[in-house]
Design brief:
The complex is a heterotrimer. By secondary structure, chain A is mainly α. Chain A is built from eleven helices and no strands. In chain A, helix 2 packs across helix 4 (68-103), helix 4 (68-103) packs parallel to helix 7 (139-165) and helix 7 (139-165) runs antiparallel to helix 9. Chain A is elongated. Chain B has eleven helices and eleven strands. In chain B, the strands form two sheets. A seven-stranded mixed beta sheet of chain B has the order 6-7-8-3-9-10-11, with helices on both faces. A four-stranded antiparallel beta sheet of chain B has the order 2-1-4-5, with helices on one face. In chain B, a hairpin with a 2-residue loop joins strand 4 (64-73) and strand 5 (76-77). Chain B is globular. Chain C is globular. Chain C starts with 5 loop residues before the first strand and ends in a 13-residue tail after the last strand. In chain C, helix 3 packs across helix 4 (127-140), helix 3 (111-122) runs parallel beside helix 5 and helix 4 packs across helix 5. In chain C, a hairpin with a 5-residue loop joins strand 11 and strand 12. The chains are: A mainly alpha, B alpha/beta, C alpha/beta. The B-C interface holds B 44-45, 161, 177, 179-180, 207-213, 215-216, 219, 234-238, 240-242, 264-265, 274-276, 278-282, 286-289, 292 and C 49-50, 156, 158, 186-192, 194-195, 213, 215-217, 219-220, 240, 243, 253-254, 257-262, 265-268, 270, 272-273, 275.
Chain lengths: 282, 344, 328
């Protein structure tokens, strides 16, 4: 683990990604501490509406008079919550399916892969819109929609990796040694597919956040007055271009966190895969 | 080094830039191949024989640097020849290549007839200087020459015992067996009427009966045409079979060169002797050579075999004797058994 | 005379061949009615060229493939049909080593963990008992306890090979199948590996089945040798008898193709032409008749069976021993 982080540190863009992600996570965790108007996040104070950035309101105020800076900070919590739960659920659904379908030769595995092909063929956001629209706007429904549409990525990935791994000599040796199959899968196969899963998780976070923000933008996410970034951008539309600060803050926040996860994911891919290859090459 | 040598490699030094440092793969190697002679380049993995073969062919990896030395082919130094001349006259034409893996050398999607004729278009011995065109696609292939080339190809396919050559030309590489593909590679090598064929472990991937067939074929075809052959192999038995002279390499240095009979009957270099002793033989116990092959990132100084050599002395770690002799050459301060000229 | 450690009766392993549409178009008879016995303590060689079935035989014996027909009797137990969990007790005593034992190690596991796995799976030994046996076996293959914490890629190729061997020995097997143990190795390394195998055989009272295509190695390591061609055993004999006078024409050709340093060049006189026929499309009668200098009409009609010639020598040919000029 330590040497992975060390190698990651040498890659500048990956390091940038890591820093961005850590910053956002810290912001979410320390929200009450670092926001300037924690109590005003959910309040309505029409007297202060649409004020430009100043000493008191670092990033200006929105149409309700709430401090945009604080709302963005608290919005990080919502965004990260959605992302972690959605991607986590996709992982928990997709990885076992991929493992099972890849390891066994039953026709059910093939059928599951074809089903996941259907999910992969339709753009995730279209699917998510359809689901969220049907169920109504709320954070839970957004998470549900995202989980349901993202698990095929994991399933497919794991399936392909397991298929290749099955032919490796050390797996064959473990079989010849009489190790029970479930043990082989859990202790030999799974650790060896962990790297691609990790990479896909990181990239998936970025992807999911973008989709969640898009759903928020369309009004399908958390209802107001929740400080959801996508919704904030949507609200800002009617006040542009005079209240330029209104869209800038949440937009930059989305940009930063998605970029961060993507860079991190790319960096992880470079670090984890060649090392694995070199270990195999001996 | 006499002028009648077809190929002379003089003091060739090649290094590779790797992630872990600079690997000194060839350390001042000397090699001479006479006209019409088959030279076996023998050594264990990592000794540099494949690098040497590729250097002569001009197909070294991009991270390789030629640090010094010369490769003289028929009097001309290949390392200082202009690229377009090398490309047009030497590569694939006067020096041909038979690789270790015959399958990888063919494009699996095109019929072998098409691949052979493609080769002939550019490298046929009948190609005139005047034929020029615009780039690869627009250069024409005169019909008369094409017919003559095709006849030559069919004739050679018969000689290498490919059944039904006409039909064979229409087949894909995947439709042939490993032994047959190697025969096809030999065909393609000979069709350009080369002076030198470099065969890099040509039979390593083949079964022993097929190996015997291919070696027999290669030898008879080469001798009939007076073509020299540089054959690299790690299998001493293969070298014994068809080579006239043998050079043994270890960790990037050439250790000994001798005509084949003398090489096996009366080896002078301690490494050669150890190598022969470790061959399986029912009449005696197998000998191991203690120690391991050194890393080329920080190889031993002087003679690279000295850490594992029974007869090493202090001298061996600082310098190596220079090349002496023509057909027979030993680079060792303590050749076995001691000869009058070699002692120091 | 003790009962043989391993007996194989009419073992068959056929692989179906499917065309692009998934329809069955034929069968590859990788193993066809193979029978032999291995005695305790001997080194039994299986030789042949690619496609002869020797690797399939090794993998079928050890349960990687299930036999299509026939019986395998190991230490008086019929193990032919056993796979997976049912093989438990057998696995400990019948082991298989790949061509590159180092590649049998999971690259993400430490050496110690890889060595621990066989014991943890099959025995009820406590952790300290397993650890002490790991150290003991590690020492037997010439490695140090410090190596237990390393990963495979941190060891040299030779050390990886030793670890692979150690892993097999953890369960104290009685019969070990070695699949091409010296293939691709340099001559000097080969000598080291063969010596190590012999030491281990003596130290652990092992019986070996030695699968190889390298005849010169087999000659000096094996007590008895079986020659295979296209799924059948065509000749079995003690090593020195076999090399002194092979009876089957294929065996003769095979041996005459080995280069003999110091002797006559075989390429001057080598005579076997052609290549083995398509395995899915075998000729009728004897499989070798298309290339055999002695082929006669009877060879196309009746497939020859392994017949005894003398006490320990058997060959499957209608004209066994009729080729003149025995080669040594």
């Amino acid at each position: 683990m330590a040497h992975v982080l060390l190698r990651l540190a040498r890659d500048r863009s990956a390091l940038l990604g890591l820093i961005l992600v850590v910053l956002v996570v810290l912001a979410a965790v320390l929200a009450p501490v670092i926001s300037t108007h924690p109590e005003a996040v959910w309040d309505m104070n029409p007297a202060n509406r649409l004020k430009p950035p100043s000493g008191e309101w670092l990033l200006g105020t929105d149409r309700m008079g709430a401090d945009i800076y604080s709302r963005v900070i608290y919005g990080a919590r919502i965004t990260l919550l959605i992302a972690f739960v959605a991607v986590g659920t996709s992982l928990l659904i997709g990885v076992p399916i991929g493992l099972w379908a890849g390891w066994n030769d039953f026709w059910i595995g093939e059928a599951l892969m074809r089903i996941s092909d259907v999910f992969l063929a339709v753009p995730q956001i279209v699917l998510a819109i359809a689901i969220a629209q049907t169920l109504g706007p709320s954070i839970e429904n957004v998470i549900l929609a995202l989980s349901v549409t993202y698990w095929p990525w994991f399933a497919r990935l794991v399936y392909a990796e397991v298929r290749v791994l099955k032919n490796e000599t050390f797996i064959e040796a473990a079989i010849a040694l009489g190790v029970p199959q479930w043990r082989i899968v859990m202790q030999h196969v799974l650790p060896n597919v962990a790297s691609p899963i990790i990479v896909r998780t990181s990239i998936g976070m970025g992807f999911t956040i973008l989709t969640a923000a898009s759903l928020g933008f369309l009004g399908l996410g958390a209802p107001p007055p929740a400080p959801e970034w996508g919704r904030m951008i949507s609200e800002s539309r009617e006040f542009l271009p005079e209240a330029w600060w209104y869209a800038l803050a949440p937009g930059l926040a989305i940009f930063a966190v998605v970029m961060g996860f993507n860079l991190l994911g790319d960096g992880l891919r470079d670090v984890l895969d060649p090392r694995l290859r070199r270990a195999h090459d001996r | 080094m006499t002028a009648s040598m077809l190929l002379e490699v003089c003091d060739l030094r090649i290094s590779f830039a790797t992630e872990s440092g600079v690997s000194r793969v060839l350390d001042g190697v000397n090699l001479s191949i006479g006209r019409g002679r088959i030279m076996g380049l023998v050594g264990e993995s990592g000794c540099g024989k494949t690098t040497l073969a590729r250097a002569v062919l001009g197909i070294l990896a991009p991270n390789a640097t030629i640090e010094g030395g010369a490769i003289r082919f028929d009097g001309q130094d290949l390392l200082s020849m202009p690229r377009h001349l090398l490309q047009r006259d030497v590569k694939g034409r006067r020096i041909a290549f038979v690789p270790q893996d015959p399958y990888g050398a063919f494009n699996p999607l095109f019929r072998i007839g098409a691949q052979i004729m493609e080769l002939m278009k550019w490298k046929s011995p009948r190609r005139q200087q005047g034929e020029r065109g615009l780039g690869t696609l627009l250069t024409s292939y005169p019909r008369a020459r094409r017919r003559a080339d095709r006849q030559a190809a069919l004739a050679l396919l018969e000689e290498v015992q490919i059944p039904d050559p006409e039909r064979a030309l229409r087949k894909l590489p995947g439709e042939f067996s490993g032994g047959q593909r190697q025969r096809l590679m030999i065909t393609m090598a000979l069709l350009t009427a080369p002076d030198l064929i470099i065969a890099d472990e040509p039979t390593t991937a083949l079964d022993v009966t097929v190996q015997a067939q291919i070696l027999k074929l290669l030898k008879s075809l080469a001798k009939d045409r007076g073509v020299s052959v540089l054959l690299t192999t790690h299998d001493l038995g293969t070298a014994y079979e068809i080579c006239d002279d043998i050079t043994v390499m270890y960790a990037g240095q050439e250790m000994e060169t001798a005509p084949v009979a003398e090489f096996f009957a009366n080896p002078h270099h301690p490494y050669t002797a150890s190598l022969l002793e470790s061959l399986p033989d029912p009449t005696r116990e197998m000998q191991e050579i203690g120690g391991e092959v050194p890393s080329l990132l920080s190889p031993p100084t002087g003679c690279r075999f000295h850490p594992r050599c029974r007869h090493a002395s202090a001298q061996c770690s600082t310098a190596r004797p220079s090349v002496s002799g023509d057909r027979r050459m030993v680079r060792c301060f303590h050749p076995q058994p001691p000869r009058q000229e070699g002692c120091s | 005379m003790q009962a043989p450690l391993l007996q194989v009766f009419d073992l068959r392993r056929h692989f179906p061949v499917h065309n692009a549409f998934g329809l069955r178009t034929g069968t590859i008879k990788a193993l066809d009615d193979v029978s032999f016995a291995v005695q305790h303590g001997e080194t039994f060689g299986l030789v042949g060229e690619s496609g002869c079935g020797k690797t399939t035989l090794g993998k079928t014996l050890v349960g990687i493939y299930k036999p299509t027909a026939g019986r395998i009797v190991f230490e008086t137990t019929d193990i032919s049909g056993l796979r997976g969990a049912a093989r438990g007790p057998v696995v400990q005593r019948l082991q298989y080593i790949h061509q590159d034992p180092g590649s049998a190690l999971d690259p993400r596991w430490t050496i110690g963990r890889s060595l621990d796995e066989p014991l943890a799976t099959h025995t009820g030994l406590s952790r300290s008992e397993r650890a002490s046996r790991s150290r003991e076996i590690l020492a037997a293959v010439g490695l140090l306890p410090a190596h237990l914490d390393l990963y495979p890629h941190e060891l040299s190729g030779g050390q990886q090979r030793r670890v692979g061997l150690a892993r097999i020995l953890m369960l104290r097997p009685r019969l070990v199948i070695l699949d091409e143990p010296t293939s691709g190795l340099d001559v000097s390394v080969q000598a080291t590996v063969l010596k190590l195998l012999r030491e281990l055989q003596q130290a652990f009272d092992l019986t070996y089945i030695f699968i190889s295509h390298d005849l010169s190695v087999v000659r000096i390591t094996c007590d008895r040798i079986a020659v295979m061609y296209l799924g059948r055993i065509v000749e079995i004999a003690p090593a020195h008898q076999l090399f002194a006078g092979p009876l089957h024409p294929y065996a003769r050709s095979l041996f005459s193709a080995i280069p003999r340093i110091g002797g006559k060049r075989v390429t001057d006189t080598f005579a076997l032409e052609g290549e083995p026929p398509d395995a899915a499309n075998l000729p009728s009668g004897c499989r070798f008749r298309a290339r055999c200098p002695l082929a006669a009409p009877v060879c196309a009609e009746h497939e020859p069976l392994l017949t005894q010639f003398g006490d320990k020598h058997a060959a499957a040919c209608h004209f066994a021993g009729k080729l003149e000029g025995a080669r040594t």
